[in-house]
Structures are given as structure tokens and as C-alpha cells.
Amino acid sequence: MKTYYSNGKLLISGEYLVLDGAISLALPTKYGQLLEVTEKHDNVLTWESYNADKQCWFSTSFDVLTLKLINSTNVLEEPVKIATTLQAILKTARTLNLNFLQNSKGALVQTHLTFPNKWGLGTSSTLINSIANWAEVNAFELLEKSFGGSGYDIACAQNKTPITYQRNRNLPIVTKVDFYPSFKNQLFFVYLNQKQDSKEGIKMYRSLSLDKTEFIKKINTLTKKICSSKKIEEFENLLETHETIISQLLNIQPVKEKLFSDFKGAVKSLGAWGGDFVLVTGKEPYVKEYFTNKNYKTIIAYDDMILI
Length: 308
Hints:
By secondary structure, this protein is an alpha+beta fold. Helices cover 35% and strands 27% of the residues.
């Protein structure tokens, strides 16, 4: 059996603008996805996907040489749509490595998420990175030719420490950074009870016709300051400034103004605005009581979320 593990991700700064070259701070998470490949001899590529509760939520099979779809089942969504998406990723991997699966007699592939599917920590990116490792191809190239996106999530999948990420003519610049805030006991991640469609978020951003140059410059400066911030008060001010800049860029109300205007701390959207997790600051009793009372019950401490 061959195994491949990829880390999940959270984008702390630079959302959306990372697509156009902004410097962003990204953190690999303790949650991720494992991919296991076991050889078989039936000329079939059998695929099984398991959720964090160890339940098989999707299965499919392909002819191992042609990658033609044989059948698929799924308890959550339309199985054929997911199967054809997976098929496209596998076929793209084969275009990048013509020998991928060509000499195989068959295989059982099982994926195991360590976080709920709806959390938005990188269900797709962890899969693509692990498939790339299995196929011995470049994961950034596989992402670009399949799902698209900035690639910061692939960088997180491959790293075990905080990083800054920047696209330079679509080439990734990944730099490990010393981001271990002394105030991390006052940082929490709160799930907003809905998964945001990152593809739709990117589509919306791409539709903007304004000049983004000044926005990128401001975010680059903020990212550097966030990485080096030493006090919680400074960190909170930087997060709030970041929210204001992205709000002006997108013409969307910041999440704190929209949902948590009476919260005594900073609230920052992470990744595509409108869903998944937000980063909040504050003391534990207050933070947990505040968000629990508003029916946001998934509240994860920094040390429990981030790979450190």
C-alpha cells in the first residue's frame, strides 16, 4: 500500500487578491486528507471516499487503462457529477505524466478526511495534492489545469509551517515565515454554518473591472505587518484594516458589521467571503459564550486548528 497525506489550509490575509499576485499569509492545519492506494488485479480503479466519521460517502470505479467511468454512488450529492470531476483530475494527471496508471493491473484508492466535508479546509486541494504525489506530477500544474485557483492551498498541503504565498506570473513563491504569535491563546476559528463556493467567489472577483494595483500594495504591506505583529491590539487593528480594504474592493459588508456588530474583538473572513471559517480574537470564556449563544457552535482554538 502507498499512502499520501496532505494538510488542510486557512488563508489569513490576501483573499481574492492572491489571485493577482498579492502576498498572502497562509496556515497549514492539523486537519487534512489521507489517500491510500492498494494494488489489485481486476483492471479496475475502484475509488472510495470516507468522511471524518469514517463513513463512505462516495464511491466510483473506472477502467484503469482508459479511465472510462464504470459506475458511481454517493450519499450526499449527484454521484455522476463528482465522478466526472474526479475523472477529469485523473485524466489531467495522466496528460502530465503519460505513464500514470498505464502499467497498472488495477487499484483500490481510499481517501480519508479528518475534518467535516463542509468546513472548507481544502477537500479539493488536499485531494489534488495527493493525486499529484501519487502520479508524480507538479501539484500546482495539476490544480491550474483542473480546478484553477491561486495555489496557496496546494502550498499549505505541502508545508508544515506558516507560509507567505505569492503568484509571480502564475508561478508560486512559497516562503516559510516565523508566525507564532505570543497571543495565540486569544485566537479562535469559528465556523459560519455554511460552506462557501470558492469557484463562485473567484468568478465574482474576476468580474470586477477596477484597477487592483493599490489594493495589492496595501495588502502586501498588511501581510508583512501581520506576520511580525507582537501584540494582540496591533494584530486586531491590522485585521480590521484588512477587512475594510477587501470590503471596499468587493463592495461587500464585512462579516463583523453584518453578523457580529456587538462582538468585543476582531472578526476576519478567511478565504472566500460569506462562509466557512472566520478568525476571531478574544478571551476564551467570552468568545465561546458569545458565538454559542448565536448558534455558532464550532469554535476551535488556534492550537487545535493550526499545524505548529
